[in-house]
Amino acid sequence: MSNEIKNPKKRRKLISYANGRSLEEINGTVKVPKNIGFWKTLFMYSGPGALVAVGYMDPGNWSTSITGGQNFQYMLMSIILISSLIAMLLQYMAAKLGIVSQMDLAQAIRARTSRALGIVLWILTELAIMATDIAEVIGAAIALYLLFHIPLVVAVFITVFDVLLLLLLTKIGFRKIEAIVVCLIMVILVVFVYQVALSNPSWGAVFGGLIPTTKAFATTPTVGGMTPLSGSLGIIGATVMPHNLYLHSAVSQTRKINHDDEEDVARTVRFSTWDSNIQLSFAFVVNALLLVMGVAVFKTGAVQDPSFFGLFHALNDTSTLSNGILIGVAKTGILSTLFAVALLASGQNSTITGTLTGQVIMEGFVHMRMPLWARRLITRLISVVPVLICVMLTSGKGSIQEHEALNNLMNNSQVFLAFALPFSMVPLLMMTDSRVEMGDRFKNSWIVRILGWISVIFLTYLNLTGLPDSIAAFFGENASAAEISMAHDIAYVLIVAVLALLAWTVIELYKGNKRYEIELAEKANAKEAA
Predict the structure, then answer these.
(1) Which GO biological-process labels does this protein carry (predicted)?
(2) pLDDT exceeds cutoff 60 at 12
(3) Domain hosting residue 75, numbered range
(4) How many domains does the chain fold into?
(5) What torsion, rounded to 10 degrees, do the Cα atoms 72, 74, 76, 82 define?
């Protein structure tokens, strides 16, 4: 079977019913020969991990990491490391669920829960995807503005036409899509390696920052409006994203597997884990380099504007840079240009993965399918609206206000990720812990189970703890006491709603799993009787 994404006539309808295999057009389309050696086999399985890693280095990560470095030196390096290790654990379980159960995470949840809960979880996850899409719109539009001096309003509309890129990619085959994503990741990596290498950072301090300390979660001091705790929450929130778990459980099924051969399934799980961990290691390096940039490329406290505009201009401003080599290179304009190129590459990468994830959750939760181009066009147009409103409302107030408004919109939109994250992590752990779902061989080991639940509780607690301040941020930096009190009241109501919805999800999953266990037992008894 070809590994092209096909568009059969029966899928010409804009919306059609879907209750088949996850991402059916590409499911099981990449054949992997046996007995070809470790490195060749790893190469054949490499690709899905890159699609997932993109979400860990999207534009939403950039300002949090660079600003964290500016404000607290290398203290938050350990947070990037912890986030990356948790991501590796969660993505391993997501890939394993897809490979072993032959269902993506959305399908697996829906198969165990009611239609009503499925619709609620679909809407919640769609909001999280749109929040990340807003960051991509802002990042890509700003990159076009900085590189080509295209007015921001026009640049925002241009981002809508990345749907044409997606149409092209659907014609060339999934392995080529994976290759393009890897190439764009390498562009981002090379840009930041080059800039950090020129800055000659203190590598002893860099590696020392990888050792976790309680100072990273302290509420004092406040530097540039950021505390170590808020900086840590920003990095964690921008790193571990719910849609990556849905995506990985789907794209891990693109390799052709003989599910009657347990060894073939085990081989796929093993090499998919290698692929995921290698690609997420690249994402860790990129995020670490961003933080190092904040410390070593710029003078301490030199970056007053942490937005993409501010970082671009700081890389052009010799007074903000830390040493003579950087200053000499900055005069050529190459540092700022490379930064904008990396920003554009990051936005385009996220376009591909965001669209695939949207299709996964729509098919899985509500059993509806749309052509990828149509889905991309609709979600991008929705995401463009708040960005356009933000640009138009601030266009007459000067560039500084416009830049701050866009930066605040991007950061504030990420609050939806805090809502959606528990509803992907908890079901993922419950199902991969289960012998019914995974079998004795592939269910989580006791160490993975313990680390998984610690990670889930830790991330959920941090996200919900940071929610009051996240809601307060919508009122701006000069919010009144009454507005802050209102924001906290809203946050507490939302926290109760999230916990209640999470309890509903857990109860339905537990009951659904028990039903499935009984069905399997009845089938086994009927087979023995026959």
Answers:
(1) iron ion transmembrane transport
(2) no
(3) 26-414
(4) 1
(5) 180
